[in-house]
Amino acid sequence: MKTAFHTGRAVLLALAASLLVACGSDEAPQSAAAPGGQALPPVTTEVLTVKRQDIPLQKSYSSLLRSDDEVTLVARVTGVLETRQFEQGDWVEQGDLLYTIEPELYQARVNERAADLKSAQAELDRARRDAERYQQLLSRNSVSRQQVDQAEAEQSVAQARVAQAEAALASARIDLNYTQVKAPVAGMVGLSQINLGNLVNAGSELVTITPLDPLEVRFQLPQRDAFELRKQLAAGETDIREIRASLQLAGNNGTQSLTLQGQMDFLGSRVDESTSTVQASARFENPDAQVLPGQFVRVSIEGLKRFNVIAVPEIAVTQGLMGPQVFVIDEEGKARAQAVQLGEIAGEWQIILEGLEEGVQVVSGDPSGIKPGTPIQAAAADEAAEEANAE
Description:
By secondary structure, the protein is an alpha+beta fold. The protein has helices at about 1-35, 105-140, 145-180, 225-235, 380-390; strands at about 45, 45-50, 50-65, 70-75, 80-85, 90, 95-100, 180, 185-190, 200, 205-210, 215-220, 245-250, 260-265, 275-285, 295-315, 320, 325-330, 335-340, 340-345, 350-355, 360-365, 375-380. The protein starts with a helix and ends with a helix.
């Protein structure tokens, strides 16, 4: 009896297991489609067909403002600082007189050197006449050849003394010009480093002049951005001065931020080993001196491009279990999650490095509410989205 009981129980268990397997195989597709065995409802959203295109970029970098033409004036001669022709903080133009350094002393030296030159020229005239006279006497055998040679040598020495006196006079005149310290550039003068009446030596710093218009902004491009820009310039697609730049300075105490417009004018040719960046610069007009050197700013660069890339609207990218993903539409018109490798963001577009090919349709609208297997119905905006993608 026990054996019959166990055998019947085993048969019942086997039948129950086979029924469960059969039921599971029938309901598996429904449970994959939606919880409770119900099909997922279709979702109407924007759809675009992936195409390769040229994408414009806008990049922003932090930077420290500087005035590239800033000059620190130094004294070129030694003497008493007699006059100062400006007020500290004034705006000066190129060529304006700023200081005078004991010009009377150097004028006297010029006069002395001029007198030395006249004396040397008179000595040369005498030596030239003597040499000519000795040549005439030699033709009549009235003097020896040695005397003629001596006269010609004295003429040569006199010529050298004239040249030496001319050089000394030129040097004295240069020193006299240095007694008038003039502005080599236009800009705003800082604090005078030496007061009037003090003795200054050659090399003493006097004042700094800071040009404020235009301003030179130097910043560091990441290595990849620099290489892409160099490739773009080498292809002849763009000239570096066509790369627009804007300078943004945050406002203080609730005031609005300030923006200046300019353009790039330099891209370095080497990578900084310590930062893996390449130096670049941009020039900005600053006519009202609203921005001063030494301020930290953000520089935005426009005109950069990435050529022949695949991109989708940034909103189309979601985060899945395997990382970034987009929803592609399969042959049945249903959404399927596709893992992708992201590149740069270009405005509203997200560049895709890997995971998508041309011709694939992707959900380009808001993906919220879409799950794998959701039927997708393209919205009427699909054509407009594709036209924007093509542009």
